């Protein structure tokens, strides 16, 4: 299966919590219970390819393809940039990628 593109926007001073269901091309949830999920977040600056690792967690036992990406504000703030990019891998396969933007609040 090919990776899906999904852009994520988080608000400044807020934790991010995003529930995702991994499905096959026929729109059927995939059993991911025996696989390892990993998320890497990169700065948009192409000259740096250093990643911050974040561990997505299963919302359930994984048999229904559901997992959760939860990032506390302290970890988002520690990225030290407002726009980046990310990948989510399942085993050795990238299943999700896109932009990660931290939206500044207007005061």
Question: How are the SSEs placed, and which strands pair?
Answer:
Layout: E1 4-5, E2 8-11, E3 16-21, E4 37-43, E5 51-54, E6 57-58, E7 66-71, H1 73-77, E8 83-90, E9 93-103
Sequence of secondary-structure elements: EEEEEEEHEE
Our measurement of the CA-to-CA distance between the termini, rounded to an integer number of angstroms, reads 44 Å
Share in helix = under 10%
Q: What's the quaternary structure here?
A: single chain
Report the major sheet. Answer: 6 strands, mixed
Please tell me what the overall shape is.
Answer: globular
Radius of gyration, in angstroms, nearest whole number: 14 Å
Number of E-state strands? 9
Structure description:
With 107 residues, the chain is mostly beta strands. The chain has a single domain, classed as Immunoglobulin-like. 5% of the residues lie in helices and 47% in strands. The chain contains 1 helix and 9 strands. The chain has one helix at 73-77; strands at 4-5, 8-11, 16-21, 37-43, 51-54, 57-58, 66-71, 83-90, 93-103. Strands 1, 2, 4, 5, 8 and 9 form a 6-stranded mixed β-sheet that branches. A 3-stranded antiparallel β-sheet has the order 3-7-6. The N and C termini lie far apart (44 Å).
Outline of the structure:
The chain is mainly beta and 107 residues long.
Distinctive features:
107 residues; 1 helix; mainly beta; Immunoglobulin-like; 6-stranded mixed β-sheet; 5% helix
